[in-house]
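[Amino acid chain]
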Amino acid sequence: MDRYVLSHFVGSYATALFLLLGLFLIMDMASNLDNYLEVGEDGTAPSTTLLVQFYLLKLPFLFLEVAPFITLLAGMFTVNRLLKKNVLSAGVSVHRLLVPIFFCGFVLAGSMFFLREIAVSTLANKRDAALYQLEERHPDRVLEDVSVHDLSGSTLFLDAIYPDTGTFRVVGLSAVIYKGDVTINILAERAHWDREAGLLRLENGQRTIVGETRVTTDIEVLEGFDFTPELALTYVRSRVPLDLSFSEVQELMSREPEDSAFNTLWHYLLTFPLANVVLLLVGLPVLFQYERGRGTERMALGGLFCIFYFAIDFVFRRLGLDGGLSPILAGWLPILIVGSLGVALTDSIRT
């Protein structure tokens, strides 16, 4: 019986995955495709290859946004099939019948967490570079006004960075580094990353040590600041917080422990994958009220529970990011509220 239910769920998941990802891709294209394909000032338009590459790179991130809803839809499709085939008359309790589906929910929750780590580390920068070419019609991405914080509380300001030119280049650099009672100010017109040495080499760099006296010297490399190009790009992606991975959020938290947004994201990235299970808990019990309403009506009601969860999740997450609510509460309350409701509904299923 477990294999029978599992086979139905796998097939339903593939159908729901294709349906939802296709729907969201079509919606994204309807909103942005005209802008992406618009002819630039030089009379050329982005190539079809670039457009296809961008959407292929975007697919994993789109999946991460809707994965719990795909799981719920697959679970509802599966239960609906089982009800139509009168599987409940096989002498197996409903709760036992649903075990393979909830097992898949936990597996998908863990897979979603690790997929985010892999996708962000390997694909996020390539996706952002492709998007920049589509929007700006220029192969060399320019990111402006980037600030990076050190573990010691020091701050590095970069007027503009060029991350996709083979050598990570910087135009306009200033840093404020704290060493005990001494403050070090560093200025440079330009800089580039030396990958072999693991150093940021400065052009026309000057270091001013401000203590009991003020001493200015010329310097050729950035010293006393923990910096890498990957860290700078992480800070750029933090402008859209949900583009970060859990490991990146941990890194940013260690540098800015008082930042409510990073603390909220840390809890959110832990709890959001659990929505794969929570939505099954609230959505599947509705389908077993088979004596009232049609299957489509019951599935629509299950979809309303899903919308209810995402609405609560959005409100609490927004409050946490803005500092209006404790990061722990912002991250865990949606799961606890809807999860408690789901446990009660699942326990009340007549079997």
